[in-house]
Amino acid sequence: MISKNSFWVSLKENNKRRIWLWILSAFTYLVVLPTVTAMFISSYKTNNSYLIEQYGESAGMARIRQETMNQLLQIFNGDNLLLLVIISGVAIVSGIQGFSYLYHKNKIDFYQAAPVKQSRRFLTIWLNGVLVYLIPGFAGTVLCLLVMAGNQMLTAEILQQTGIAFFLLLFVYLGCYHMTILAVMLTGNVLITCLGTGVFFLYEWMVRSVLSGYKLMFFPHYSTFNQSDMPYFSPIAMFIRYSEKRSEGQAGILGTVLQLSLFSGIVLALAYWCYRKRPAEAAGRAMAFKVTQPVIKIALAIPASLFAGLIVSNIVGYSPLWNSGSPGFPVFSMAIVVVVVCCLMQVVYEFDIRGILHKKWHILISSAAAALIFLVFSKDLTGYNSYVPKVDRVSSAVLISPYEYSVYGDDYYDENLKYEDRMEYLADNMYLSDIGSLNKLLQKSIDSLGKYSDLSALYEDENAEWYCLNVMYRMGNHKTVQREFYVNMKDQETLDLLDRVIDSEEYISAVYGKMMDTIYQIMEKHADGIKLSYTYGNSIDAGKLSEEDALTLMKCFMEDIRKTDFSETRKEISYGSLEIAVQQDNGFYTMNRHKEFRIYPSYENCAAFLKEKGLYKEIFIDPDEVEKIQVINYNWDKSNTDMAVADTAVYTESMIDSAEPVYYEDTYAYEGDPYMVRQTYSDRDKIEEISHKLYPMDQGGADFTSDVDFDTDYEVIVYFKPESSITASYTGSVGCYFLKGEVPEYVQEDTACQE
């Protein structure tokens, strides 16, 4: 016979008061989740049934099955946001409903009169809240697995990963559940509990957003690289980090379990302590403990006001780093929010509108704290912008140069063809040891910015050419320091320092060598439907290479880049590129990955090999392949004046030309522009002369990696002969530029805007 005071009886009695919650949880996990799984499988099969027609019954079904299993693996491996929403929702409802008796004085008296210890009552309610998720959740997961098995979609990998995900999600549930219980213990009614739970979930995110937002607003050397506003003290954020690392093959299950269990355990202990200390008269009040009222109010008012300042700054365009806008509206909004938050919270605390007039010293403290924080950022009282790490405290560093535009030049991927973000790729593979040179570059940036009123003045300086770079220092204490800094590419000392860093073996190995090794690994595999193709050329003329020739050219490239200065290649225009294309048939689609290695005139080994193979070309445009050349002069220097319309005869001629089939579309041209003048050249002598001075538009131009400046006043369209063997990217025509100072005089005269 079971005693009426047994723990089992208490558990059953408590469950009778939570029947509706059990029904809700059971419906979600036992009906909704398996149904959605079955619908997803059916939909995936139906929408991709064309593969059966394309590949045949057997092969098509195999492809559909494989792709469906891949999607299911992602969904039941924790990548499903819906699962996290369901889990956190059930946890919040369970936590509030289980301890809701604390909101009513008469229910508290009833429970306290019962011969049950507080610890046992707390344990009973807590355990029922866990079982409400655990039992239906486990049963629902099993049903989903049975649905997959019935559709022949269940594999050992899916079974294993689903089990791991369910185990981890249990700890996520506990973390959310315990945070809700803590909110219940600190409050006296359900509305305030809901608000408090929301604060627990969002407070850290808001604080981190405020800190990063003000750094971005006031600190010119703040770098967003490798930065995230995702909270650390959040079970959901911990699980998301695990999922991200798992997708990268770096997940540590035990570490994640330890973090989640430690977090949920500490929050539970704090909630139980508050439960024991909670006074009975707290029922119905906004806050259970009066001592927490001013602390919570001030802790909310300060970041709320600063957050409002950020939002208003974005609305009115206040950006002190760029000398834009005024701080008036942001500061005014911060003051208003401080007052409103403090007054509203005091009204809620007292449940009396007259509370708006009470505790004014809370407003003063919050206002002073918010103003101080704003001042710290605006005046850089912490010395953030002037900080340069000491060399002996840095173990290694990463330099992230500006994005170099090229068709495929910044594609990085691993041996499994998984795409890797450029910045993350370099951060994982670059270990620079020349910290002294990086520090000098950072210090030069700090000193230079002190001479300008703002960043707009920096970029308006005609005597300088500024580019923004990122550096990440790996400190000896396993922490990292990120900084954004500015370099003047017209400063010789800056170029010398960049040469030392960019020409180092650590930099070359990370940017080029590691990717080369990956390509070698893929070439060795040649499996799983992977196809490789090798092309050498440019946007005008390109041809296939054999694998042997590609390997030789890759070797020559690495030899040349190791003995060529960065500042030297900046003065050159790349005359060709080695492009490596990788394709893998995944059933539903073909995965494409590319990598481009640009080759410059100073690369002696590459030039010798290309000459040996008859692939080397000193000019881009072969005049013998050209039918005609059309030059468009936009006359930018005239377009902002009150000039008359261009000469009618010249413009009429251009209109006739534009009526012909044009494959390359003008970048800026539009019909009726009064200053734009076109001229077409069919004379062989002029075609010969002009062709030697032309460069394809996508071959560069002035940027961080190139000091070569095109004259963009003139746009040139080269039309190739119909019988030409040129494989132009623009199907018969290509857009080109002249270098500045190299436009033939007769072209300038022919396309000048007539007054």
TrEMBL record:
Top-rank lineage group of the source organism: Bacteria
Protein name: ABC-2 type transport system permease protein
UniProt key word Hydrolase: no
Protein keywords: Membrane, Transmembrane, Transmembrane helix
Record-annotated membrane-spanning stretches: 20-41, 81-104, 125-148, 181-203, 251-275, 295-316, 328-349, 361-378
